UniProtKB/TrEMBL annotation:
<dbReference type="InterPro" id="IPR036281">
    <property type="entry name" value="SinR/SinI_dimer_dom_sf"/>
</dbReference>
<dbReference type="GO" id="GO:0006355">
    <property type="term" value="P:regulation of DNA-templated transcription"/>
</dbReference>
<dbReference type="Pfam" id="PF08671">
    <property type="entry name" value="SinI"/>
</dbReference>
<dbReference type="GO" id="GO:0046983">
    <property type="term" value="F:protein dimerization activity"/>
</dbReference>
<protein>
    <submittedName>
        <fullName>Anti-repressor SinI</fullName>
    </submittedName>
</protein>
<feature type="domain" description="Sin">
    <location>
        <begin position="1"/>
        <end position="35"/>
    </location>
</feature>
<dbReference type="InterPro" id="IPR010981">
    <property type="entry name" value="SinR/SinI_dimer_dom"/>
</dbReference>
Length: 44
């Protein structure tokens, strides 16, 4: 069985973003704009 690692802090951050009404696209846009890592995957 393949194990997956979920970063709880990231999960909580995404949940909070959704609570205030941000869409997944807006979250990805924010992360790509404010990231030092320009290799962020942005699935459509």
């Amino acid at each position: 069985m393949k194990e997956s690692h979920i970063d709880v802090q990231w999960l909580l951050l995404i949940i909070e973003a959704k609570k205030i009404g941000l869409t997944p696209k807006e979250i990805r846009s924010f992360l790509s704009t404010h990231s030092n890592n320009k290799d962020i995957t942005q699935p459509e």
